[in-house]
Design goal:
There is one protein chain. This protein has 225 residues and is α+β, with helices and mostly antiparallel strands. It has a domain of 135 residues: Beta-Lactamase. The chain contains seven helices and six strands, in the order H-H-H-E-E-H-H-E-H-E-E-E-H. The strands form two sheets. Strands 3-6-5-4 form a four-stranded antiparallel beta sheet, sandwiched between helices. Strand 1 and strand 2 form a beta hairpin.
């Protein structure tokens, strides 16, 4: 009695006998398959070509995405480099906050940027960047373990931007290198609700925070270094 063949048995047989079609070459043109792309009946060879074209298109799409990501990362790296260059030219510590903010705004095309610093040396107590800092803001910054990126929920710190409309924002805590003590908060804002979203990656924002912290730490009171 001949056992009933099912599709899995046939598939297993063909897998275990790779020379089957070499020994039965006529079947390559005779076997007919239904194309999922066109719905028409095609030969096995034509179906193989369809599969190869699909794989090629998928690979082409993936390479295109990788190329686009590489271009975007390259553009961000160039902006980051320009920002760093501007700060490296500063010779007066008191001027660093303004240069940092302005260069960040111009290099990255951010509509609004500001910051506030606390626990500063006495000579910086009256500077613009040490004003209007409440206990709530400091508490918020202390709890900000990673950059906030998303909608503006009427955050108090966003008021530093002095902008009529801020729909999305980034807030980055500034911390003492080594100890991690918080001494400031960097705020970016945009009227575009899609400029900064919670789905965005924050790797570059972390680097911005670390760089800004290192550049501004010279303003912190010596006993807190």
């Amino acid at each position: 009695m001949t056992a009933t063949l099912d599709s899995s048995t046939v598939a297993q047989y063909l897998s275990e006998h790779p020379d089957f079609f070499a020994e039965h070459t006529s079947l390559l043109g005779e076997v007919k398959l239904s194309s999922p792309l066109t719905g028409r009946t095609i030969s096995l060879q034509e179906r193989q070509m369809e599969v190869m074209r699909d794989k090629y298109k998928a690979l082409e799409l993936r390479m295109s995405r990788l190329s686009r990501v590489a271009e975007e990362n390259g553009a961000i790296a160039n902006k980051f480099h320009g920002w760093n260059q501007a700060m490296l030219q500063v010779r007066d510590d008191a001027a660093m906050p303004r240069v940092l903010v302005d260069a960040l705004q111009s290099n990255f095309g951010v509509p609004h940027v500001s910051l506030r610093l606390w626990q500063l040396a006495p000579e910086y107590a009256d500077a613009w960047y040490s004003q209007n800092i409440t206990a709530d803001v400091r508490m918020f910054a202390n709890g900000l373990q990673t950059p906030y990126c998303g909608s503006n929920h009427d955050f108090e710190a966003v008021q530093w931007l002095q902008a009529d409309k801020v729909e999305s924002t980034v807030m980055i805590a500034l911390r003492t290198p080594g100890t991690g003590d918080t001494f400031g908060l960097l705020v970016l804002g945009s009227p575009d609700s899609e400029r900064f979203t919670s789905s965005m990656g924050t790797d570059f924002l972390v680097h911005i925070g670390a760089t800004a912290s290192a550049a501004l730490h010279a303003l912190v009171a010596a006993k807190l270094h």
